[in-house]
Amino acid sequence: xxxxxSIVSGKGGTGKTSSAINLAAALNSLGEDVIVVDxxxxxxxxxxxxxxxxxxxxxxxxxxxRAEVTEAIYKHESGLKILPSSLSxxxxxxIKHENLVQVVKQLKRLSKYIILDxxxxxxxxxxxxxxxxxEVIIVTQPEMPAVTDALKAVKLCEQLGKPVKGFILTRHxxxxxxxxxxxxxxxxxIPAVGLIPEDKNMQKALMxxxxxxxxxxxxxxxxxxxxxxxxxxxxxxxxxxFERIFGS
Length: 248
Ligand SMILES: Nc1ncnc2c1ncn2[C@@H]1O[C@H](COP(=O)(O)OP(=O)(O)OP(=O)(O)O)[C@@H](O)[C@H]1O
Ligand SMILES: [Mg+2]
Description:
The chain is α/β, with parallel strands linked by helices.
């Protein structure tokens, strides 16, 4: 049975796209069949992160009934499948975001894991992404404005009746000045599914247009994304940081 995760944060720039592509690429490297969908239609990032910024057929064409979903799927050199959105703003007004549910239903027949990268904010576009998913993964950073918006995202999921799998904390630097993981757990009242350290290789991977898990697989962030992917697959880790902090 295919599984669909939407990656949502509320606040912009928290690491949604980085998490969507790296989680997808890690699952792909672990032998799973994955499609990553750029459900951030107004400000798409997936194609930019993966070096396919301009492609002939996009999710925009599918959502406006101008193409079949299979025509808009591309393969990254790593083997990861991508369904990108258009960088053009031309057809934005015509897009029916609610059609995403049907598109995702079709994708479920094509791959085992579907990862939806979402737009910043909690508007119609993000709502469509949440509604099209089976479970939501909230991405946040260790600072109050990001965690406050993450809490709003959790509440929105509750209102929409969508289960939240947990949160991924990005750009963690283990500093006293940051919000502490225990406080974030208390505030959000959802499990942690990933703890991604600040890693300068993230910027280098972006320049290479390759997920960090492929370009720098031994880097700190890559190891953390692999650990997150294994947790999603239910593969038990040896006793490590997660077990000590999160007690699972
Ligand atoms: N663990 C990390 N270490 C260092 N830099 C990171 C890390 N995670 C993300 N970044 C950087 O943070 C910036 C924002 O990340 P990203 O584009 O993934 O955020 P986003 O939530 O998708 O943004 P938007 O809301 O605009 O779509 C990027 O430059 C990315 O390289
Ligand atoms: Mg993004």
